[in-house]
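About this split. The held-out portion is used to measure sequence recovery: a designer receives only the structure tokens and must propose an amino acid at every position. Recovery is the fraction of positions where the proposal matches the reference. Here is one held-out target exactly as it appears in the evaluation file.
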């Protein structure tokens, strides 16, 4: 069987598995895939789906986006944007409202610098998010400056 062109995904997975001190069988079990299937991925004989890569990444506690790039599913620039979004969304020290605002500001800055938001953009809301105080939690920069309320 000839190797598929999946970059160095298999080698990278093997390295990450060994760094995590997991056997092939342990990783396969943790990721919910068969031992032979994972072995074929590591040897470059199978190209896994994004879903399988996500399960493997979760089991290894590494970035799924990194695996997507190595498998040729994502381009490097998309991965960087996706990782930024994932970092914001996974931060346990800020509220969901704050995460939404940060993502809106991030998109505004990217657009201002000539980059359109990628396919992973959006935080699941369909417009300005309203915080608990009822105020608009949209981007910090608006077309008209707001007057302080007293």
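Reference sequence for scoring:
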């Amino acid at each position: 069987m000839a190797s598929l062109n999946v970059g160095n995904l298999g080698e990278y997975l093997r390295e990450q598995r060994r760094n995590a001190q997991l056997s092939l069988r342990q990783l396969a079990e943790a990721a919910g895939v068969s031992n032979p299937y994972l072995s074929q991925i590591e040897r470059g004989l199978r190209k896994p789906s994004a879903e399988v890569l996500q399960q493997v990444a979760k089991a290894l506690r590494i970035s799924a986006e990194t695996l997507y790039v190595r498998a040729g599913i994502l381009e490097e620039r998309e991965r960087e944007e996706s990782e930024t979004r994932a970092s914001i969304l996974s931060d346990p020290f800020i509220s969901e409202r704050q995460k939404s605002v940060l993502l809106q500001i991030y998109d505004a800055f990217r657009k201002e610098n000539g980059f359109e938001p990628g396919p992973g953009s959006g935080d699941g809301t369909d417009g300005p998010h309203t915080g608990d105080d009822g105020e608009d939690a949209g981007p910090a920069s608006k077309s008209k400056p707001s007057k302080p309320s007293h």
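Annotator remark: Residues 1-5, 119-149 have pLDDT under 50 and may be disordered.
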